[in-house]
Amino acid sequence: MKFLQFYKNGEAALGLVTEGGIVDVGANEGCPKTMLELCRSGDVAALKNLTAPIVDEASITYAPIVTGLEKMLCVGLNYRAHALECGMALPAEPTIFCKLNNALAAHNETIPMPCGAVEVDYEAELVLIMGENGKIFAATCGNDFSVREWQKATTQWLCGKSCDGFGPIGPYAVDWATLGDGGLAISCRVNGELRQNSRTDDLIFNAQQIVDYLMPRIPLKAGDVIFTGTPSGVMMGWPEDKKQWLKSGDTVDVTIEGIGTLTNTLA
Q1: 15, 74, 81, 121: which sits with the fewest CB atoms below 10 Å from its CB?
Q2: Other CB atoms closer than 10 Å to residue 44's CB: what's the count?
């Protein structure tokens, strides 16, 4: 099943994507009103027969696919080809860092360029959305925007990763039982130009391995999200004389097979 979140009376509301349109799930008695509530219950089967009320998707303002979450975790250097393009050895264990919640953003949201930043990069990523008890509930598209000169200035990456809006996720989430992560096509385009083009079976650590690694170290809660890493093709890996860092006005599209396309423009 496929879900989204949209703003309704100023609050994030859960929508179910159907052939007949977007069902306002929370308008039905006893149904979850947000993605976080659905992650906590995990009961997607109870929603499969909902048909009303219908919301016109063309008229909505998208919210981040999950809101009210506690943690945004990320895995670095988790595609074989990406590690190679960066000249780094394949990691023996997942490299974990985080984005702070100010980085959370939605599909079609305009992302502000950080003042003074030059080496602004894109990273198309499959993002896990957690359910209860360490279970993967769903997956969505994400873009791990990064300021490379700030990321590389120290051994800690946080300052290059947590600028406002630098963690957009959406527009849709697909429940994990339906999707899985085996061999999904993943790509990134900048102003329509293909920059990344890979499949999730190039992951060094797959989704379940990441969750199994994290749970004893950073207990995961329902609604937490995990950016699982980016394929080759990021600007950081390009030759110095060919780098084209992102700039104001650029539009970046992240597409994952079976999920959809996340679009953001930099201001």
Answers
A1: 81
A2: 18
Of 215, 10, 52, 15, nearest in space to 128 by CA:
215
> What is the domain partition of the chain in residue ranges?
2-59, 72-266
pTM: 0.97
* Residue 35 to residue 3: CA distance in whole angstroms: 8
Question: What is the rounded end-to-end Cα distance, in angstroms, of the chain?
Answer: 33
Instruction: Please compute, for residue 123, the number of CA atoms within 13 A of its CA located in the half-sphere on the CB side.
Output: 28
pLDDT in tens, 167-212: 999 999 999 999 976 789 999 999 999 999 999 999 999 999 999 9
Count, residues in the chain: 267
pLDDT confidence of 233, banded at 50, 70, 90? very high
Give the CA diameter of the chain: 59
Peptide bond into 168 cis (omega under 30): no
**Distance between CA atoms of 86 and 122, rounded to whole angstroms?**
15
110-113 contact pairs (CB < 8 A, 24+): 110/165, 110/264, 110/265, 110/266, 110/267, 111/145, 111/164, 111/165, 111/166, 111/168, 111/264, 111/265, 111/266, 111/267, 112/163, 112/164, 112/165, 112/266, 112/267, 113/246, 113/247, 113/248, 113/266, 113/267
Beta strand pairing call for 193-199 and 120-121: unpaired
Nearest partner of 245 among 147, 142, 154, 110, judged by Cα: 147
Q: Superfamily for 72-266?
A: Fumarylacetoacetase-like, C-terminal domain (3.90.850.10)
Could you tell me the two tokens for 51? Answer: 């048909």
